[in-house]
Request: fold
Amino acid sequence: MRSIKDGLRFHAHAIKKGITSTVFTSNQLIHLYSKHGLLAEAHKLFDEMPERNVFTWNAIIWAYIKTQNLKQARELFDSAPSKDLVTYNSMLSGYINTDGYETNALKLFIEMQSLNDETRIDEFSLTRMLNLSAKLSMESYGKQLHSYMVKTANNLSGFAVSSLVDMYSKCGCFREVCQVFDGCAGVLDLVSKNAMVAACCREGELEMGVNLFWRDLELNDVVSWNTLISGYVQNGCEEDALKLFVHMKENEVRWNEHTIAGLLSACAGLRSLKLGKEVHGWVLKYELGFNPFISSGLVDVYCKCGNLKYAELVYATIGTGNAFSITSMIVGHSSQGNMGEARRLFDSLTEKSSIIWTALFTGYVKSQQCEAVFELLSEFRVKEAMVPDALILISVLGACAIQAALNPGKQIHAYVLRIEIELDEKLLSAMVDMYSKSGNIKYAEKIFQRVTNRDAVIYNIMTAGYAHHGHENQAIQKFEEMLERGVRPDAVTFVALLSACRHCGLVGLRLLLCPLGSNVVVRTACCSVGIVFPVYSTFKAIEKKDQNEQQRWLVYWAAYGSFSLAEAFADKVLYWFPLYYHMKFAFLVWLQLPSTDGAGHLYMRHLRPFLLRHQAKLDQIMGLLYGEMAKFISLHQAEIQLARTFAMKVLAGVRDIIHSDAKQVTRAIEGPTTRRMHDSTTTQPTHDSVIENPTTGTQTQDSESNHEE
Reply:
């Protein structure tokens, strides 16, 4: 019986003729029914069987495990008159694969150790428990299992090695990963190789993983290629992932749905709408749109590329049960400030994971809806039993920083210490930012000193904090410390440093002579310094009607325009003068400093005397230019109008061609059914609720998918 149709026909014939099926045939039917989701029919057949054996019990128990109905599966397990090793391993796998049943799995494994020799744990039991150790990141459990496997000689097969490599990798023990892999050179097979490549990618040792992948290329299968494609994406090398897919096609390796999911992740990382549409074309061509991983990947691509229209159309075709797609839609709406729709999608879920909560928290912070963040935190603590993870707390601290709310920020800090959440660099950086923006620079300093691996982000936060509080010397010292540690400054660093320098006379030649190594950073700093503060200061000068300030910023913008004009016409030439951008940066800083009054000095000492001395000649030249321009326009009005009409027609034709091509692509992606569904879709209103104060209450708490062979 190879198909469900054959099974149903055979079963109906047996009932009609009054034939009692053998135990073997009934076991096959139970397995066939459960495989196709006909659980009620499988259980009815099980109840009607006059005679059952251990295989019968294994089949019906596994049927309930597949549907994650572990309560009923456990009742059948306890009712089974006889159990073999398959029975125990099936129940053990069910517990390990289902969240929330980890303790049950551990108890069952301990029970298995006291059984007789016929049902004693084997290699499969041990590898499944290694998966549990990896899932919980319990290195100590994993090492105990490894010792037991060595003692019982269950560590030699390819599956055992791959499970050990996977466990140590997910527990962050890469040295042990290498030891396990190097110790199995005699039994190295495809499964072990794939696990090692995945571990290298997870650890960031991409070069090591790539070298291992290309060694013995004929050994690789589609899982090997998919593993490296995903590894490239995880390490930010999306273009290399796409190139590897081209090599995959050249080597005539047949791709599968996991390959397409990896390509969609690469397109999302590159924010490439064009490549995303091309992959979507493949999905439509090969009818892969109903795969939940691929459909959620399409939604993610369109959301990250800012095309929410296509994202909503794809989402409408796959229904509302895909949590990954809903998360992407929440992030997409949040990025465009549409928090009402993001909240509606959030409320549509009956069960919400930590990732979905984090997506909504982040959206509210980006939209600067701080009160909504605090209300959501109260809702989280009421509805969820788990402790909020670090990303949720970072979002709440970000809201406190935006509002300069010191007391709620302190309470979040105390809550983190009370429940002993691990303080990583991101969480510590958020605390430093909150305290510095809330007026307590001393607390910010203390937390900053606790960070050992300091990057440009936390240095920028601390430098900006010192600048905000008027501590110019400390800001300069942090910049010098940053350079001494080899941390590369960026545009934000220079803006924060300039903000500190503006309060005193520190031009800081150290900024110009520091070992930046490249003009790119200085060039970016020039752009930031040349736009951010001058725009705001010019606006203030106009509003206050301050003539001196207006003259000063008029000179500044004239100088900035002169630099821009020179760069527009001589960019290739300026490339060969490496100190040009350093000098430009110094000059722009000098013009802006209040203490030196560089713009006023330049205007009064040089520019004003020059203009007064040559004003008559300059007026004559400008009058001549304007007169000739007006004469040219009046004499050639007909030609100008003709040229304008011709240009408008050309542009209209180009626009029609572009719109025609765009409509063809849109029709290919949308389809007539999804367009009608989209047109009929309406936005549901959201409802606000009164929630308790987030600062009171009691305590509240990178997974890798296994590759199938």
Notes: Residues 504-532, 668-709 have pLDDT under 50 and may be disordered. The domain at 1-121 is CATH 1.25.40 (Serine Threonine Protein Phosphatase 5, Tetratricopeptide repeat). The radius of gyration is 34 Å. DSSP finds 37 helices and no strands in the chain.
